Amino acid sequence: MTITRFAPSPTGRLHVGNIRTALHNWLYARQQGGQFLLRLDDTDAERSSEEYAQAIRADLAWLGLDIDGEERQSARTDRYEAAFEKLREAGRVYPAFETPQELELKRKVQLGRGKPPVYDRAALELSEQQIADFETQGRAPHWRFKLDHDAQILWDDLIRGPQHFDPALLSDPVIRREDGSWLYMLPSAVDDVEMGISHVVRGEDHVTNTGLQLQMFEAMGAPPPAFAHEALLVGSEGKLSKRLGSLGCDAFRESGIEASAIVSLLGRIGTSDPVEPFADPAPLIESLDFTRFSRAPARFDDEELKALNTNIVHQLDYEAVADRLPNGVDAAAWLAIRPNLETVADAGDWWAVVEGPVDSPAFDAETAAFLDSAAARAESLDWSGEIWKDLTGQLKADTGRKGRDLFLPLRQALTGRDHGPEMAALLPLIGKQRAVARLKR
Ligand code: GLU
Hints:
The chain is an alpha/beta fold. The protein is built from 18 helices and twelve strands. The chain binds glutamic acid (GLU).
């Protein structure tokens, strides 16, 4: 059974980077007929909030990334405690008492000697007596996971291919703070085991963590999940951008971007598959293939998103947008207006044009006379047929006008604008009464 998880910390809103991670986990779970879990990494009680948790759920729902279950780390601390005790008994975690200042000094000395700043494991040399002394002084330890230096760390990443770390070049990671609170590393590995996570899809900023966590899986006697580390997301200028770190669903929604446009873009950028406008995610689900993910950063381009969005809006069925349209816009009106929209919200502008009033420009005397004759024709014609075709055909025969001379003044008088939806679709919506009144000079 394929089980993926999206594991945000509820310490902020989702942004394009973690939306993309969530999306790939969701797409893969759906492709494999598996499950997609939301796991709130909320061990940091101070920075986590229910408000953010709620916003994350709402954003996932808006994006259409339905979840098959939710877990939260704050409710599972007894599980971490149990795993910790076992690892301690097995000698895989150990207490350390260095202060942050002492650790910083060690780092500086190592760097000064041109050595990698790897923790020197001095805490492993402490005698029982020294530990007891620290404790009587009221100093609590933080806890480190002891890496097995004899076991090379190897895995075949689904995106990055074969990976190798030498554990001797890595610091034993701190997994628990002085106050007993948990850092990310161990709880996450415990959860992945106990929740049966089969695939971990996350950003390549976690590659080293994976190396460390693989030894935790091993120490817990559990087979590790498969890993796929995706390249990071950069702005169109090719750089990590601060703006992307805060650009989220609210901003997209406000600027009229459809969830399906974001899904279409984030699903495919940074892969060798073309970005295409999918109003429905089925083709994305079907085509997701980690071997087609590039190791170069994925570029997020607002202009590309806008263009995709326009394209998707032009595909949306009336049913998909009905609850977002102004009163009175029916399926026929939607189809008439749709090809002219960049966002669904823009439909309101065109509906205002249909309902009026409209401001038309001042026309010269000859054009005004032409429009008066158009009003008379519009009055007498049968509106149950193809009124635009009949009206313009009639006026062409009457006046000899054609092309722009024929169509533009009519459009201007009827809509107050030079461009817009096909008049053939718009005119029946405007209707006889309003049309005649707008044409009359
Ligand atoms: N909370 C971690 C993060 O947001 C989760 C990483 C993971 O997927 O394991 O970076």
